[in-house]
Amino acid sequence: SGIGKVDGYTLFVKDALIGDTAEVKVIKTKKHYGYGRLMRIITPSPDRVEAPCPHARSCGGCQIQHLSYERQLAFKENKVRNLLSRVGHVEDYVMHPIIGMEHPYYYRNKAQFPVGLGKDGQIVTGFYAGRTHQIISCRNCAIADPASQLIIDTVLDFMKQYGIRAYDETTGKGIVRHILIRSGKSTGQIMVCLVINGTRLPHKEELIEVLREANPQIVSICININDKNTNVILGRETKAIYGQDYIEDCIGSLRYRISAQSFYQVNPIQTKKLYDKALEYADLHEDETVWDLYCGIGTISLFLSQKADKVYGVEIVEQAVKNARENAALNEISNVEFFAGAAEEVVPAKYRESGGTLRSDVVVLDPPRKGCDEKLLQTVIQMEPKRIVYVSCDPATLARDLKYFGENGYVLKRICPCDMFGHSYHVETVCLLSKRSIMSM
Ligand code: SAH
What we know:
By secondary structure, this protein is of the alpha/beta class. It has helices at about 70-85, 150-160, 205-215, 270-280, 300-305, 320-330, 345-355, 375-380, 395-405; strands at about 1-5, 10-15, 20-30, 35-45, 95, 110-115, 125-130, 135, 175-185, 190-195, 220-225, 235-245, 245-250, 255-260, 290-295, 310-315, 335-340, 360-365, 385-390, 410-420, 430-435.
């Protein structure tokens, strides 16, 4: 939100920018601050641009499309710096300039379109309006793969033709909940996965036929079964109904196999730059061991294995661990080993089993937004790594975890934000910590 002042009183206003003078409707007030709705811009901020997507304001996906891309980058850099100092209490580190995108549109390799009923009773797909479950009909998202449009049209036409109903969250009835589309930007391979309420999709042969006709790059058509009344998009089980249950993509010289349930970075061009930075920070030597925690399908593990003696990966999603092992084989890499389970359980257990002798030269952490569990941080410190490379998608939890490391003998050396999610307020950051040397002055 933009933060504005009226006679000294603070108002938080969604979609307002620093430098705007605006007419705002006050919608909620508290003693020291309130919330307002942006009604009209009187004088626009010099950083304001016309958002290319007509849905930018109502959709929950892009919060800052109306801010010039250059200023978006500056905003993200600042956000990281502020959190590090306010929450992390860290100073005296080197911050490399944020790595921005050259083309900040149509960059995503994954989109999950909710399917539901519009006001007129027609099937709609698009995006949830910010903080709600109301679907805004949108077929040409400015950050999704342009190939998605024809694919969702094809699925909707198929549903209409065969009377297949959209899932209704309020009644729990209907079949199709989400359309997940994943593309391998460097291989061109596409996966279409229909998340369905139930175990069977009627007329699936017809769906396969129309989808393949619409886009011959579709190599995988899956159904994912989710019959729970939940906001979680994917259910536990995914079955291929055409082709394989995965697609492949390359980052640098490595090839990765990705299934519907596995995590894979959404912006492959920026991912290469991010991993290169992680590799640079890890500064590996050939005799060194690495633990890559929260390793997903082994992307970073395999990237680092080329420079290390041995890499161990830990990941909670079993399907992703299976992919990680397949990816090692696919790339003929043998100095990696993967464990399935929660990092905060697996790593302390391995440490205990070793009788407290488990050590690692480098530890890589790449947790989800909530950051690392303290039990894991404790064990990492006991493993006495020389260097820790922390890759984070939420600078607030990163700052919290850095504070913990700071109190336990590690210093932040270098940090580099990377824009993986242009037009959203999210920012990815990679940083290097090293063990505080007793000799250092
Ligand atoms: N390093 C990978 C994945 C990072 S995303 C990459 O760059 O592609 C974070 C990963 O952590 C996801 O794969 C998620 O499934 C996994 N995860 C979430 N909680 C976990 C936990 N408690 N222990 C281990 N892995 C976890």
